[in-house]
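lol forgot to send this yesterday, sorry. struct tokens for the thing we talked abt
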């Protein structure tokens, strides 16, 4: 009987405040969709870092005859064969170095023509202007500075470049988007909480006579508050379910179909469905608990009769 009464009160409350309940569902859905999207974006950044940092190299560029006059690091002239062998041998002796690959000026020229052959400047570049280099793969990409320090100021070395810097701007952009999503999510959560509190108060006000009678006949505060709390929790759960739908649909159309980023950007290691599915229970749990807690706090003061 008690359960039936609570359920009937929930149904009455939802019907009386249908417009505000709908607003709560929409605001909770949007805020939790942004929350889930921010979590997935953070995981995507970490996945890309793990994928690309394992593949990037440290590039040790050697001085050529053109650098001898144009670059202070190459003031002693172009790199000699003896210096090349010594640099390569020293790199191979390092414990953190996994492999060392030498790229000649001719190979660098062919790669440049392949990548930038359509640009106007490509026609003015000649093989002797390209720099020889060593492509160094590290066992731990984070220890790039060890190589840079060991070769700094070395005769024949023009510069040491960590290829991770090329990717850092992309990762910074994605992290910025994640922070922006979290900020918007925070704003939407505040709006949702205010709507929940307002909806609960309107519902309680419209049934103040019933709650007063229940208090007079000895009903506990928990029993009186339960219908209102469950109304808010139900609306929040619906919002969480809609948010889960947004996340699933977003993953489907952005990566698998629609924009089909997985097909168009095959060099990017996108997060899988398992990453999305593991976030859905968290989104549903927040959608259920957040409105219930907000309603409970609002009712403690309002239903003191």
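and heres what i got for the seq, position by position
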């Amino acid at each position: 009987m008690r359960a039936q009464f609570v359920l009937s009160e929930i149904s009455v409350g939802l019907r009386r405040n249908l417009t505000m309940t709908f607003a709560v569902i929409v605001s909770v859905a949007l805020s939790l969709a942004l929350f889930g999207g921010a979590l997935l974006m953070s995981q995507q950044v970490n996945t890309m870092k793990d994928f690309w940092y394992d593949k990037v190299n440290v590039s040790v560029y050697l001085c050529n005859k053109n650098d001898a006059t144009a670059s202070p690091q190459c003031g002693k002239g172009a790199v000699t064969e003896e210096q090349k062998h010594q640099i390569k041998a020293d790199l191979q002796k390092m414990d953190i170095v996994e492999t060392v690959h030498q790229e000649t000026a001719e190979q660098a020229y062919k790669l440049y023509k392949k990548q930038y052959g359509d640009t106007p400047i490509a026609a003015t570049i000649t093989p002797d202007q390209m720099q020889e280099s060593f492509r160094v793969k590290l066992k731990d990409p984070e220890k790039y500075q060890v190589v840079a320090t060991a070769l700094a100021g070395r005769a024949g070395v023009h510069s040491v470049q960590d290829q991770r810097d090329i990717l850092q701007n992309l990762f910074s952009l994605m992290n910025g988007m994640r922070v922006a999503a979290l900020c918007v999510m925070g704003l939407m959560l505040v709006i949702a909480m205010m709507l929940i509190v307002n909806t609960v108060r309107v519902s309680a006000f419209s049934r103040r006579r019933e709650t007063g009678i229940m208090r007079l006949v000895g009903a506990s505060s928990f029993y009186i508050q339960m219908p209102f709390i469950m109304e808010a929790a139900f609306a929040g759960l619906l919002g969480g379910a809609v948010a889960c739908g947004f996340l699933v649909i977003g993953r489907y159309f952005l990566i698998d179909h629609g924009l089909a980023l997985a097909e168009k950007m095959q060099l990017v290691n996108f997060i899988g469905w398992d990453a999305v599915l593991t976030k859905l229970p968290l989104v549903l749990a927040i959608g259920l608990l957040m409105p219930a807690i907000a309603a409970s706090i609002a009712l403690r003061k309002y239903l003191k009769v």
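The CA atoms of residues 105 and 132 lie 5 Å apart. anyway ping me if u want another try
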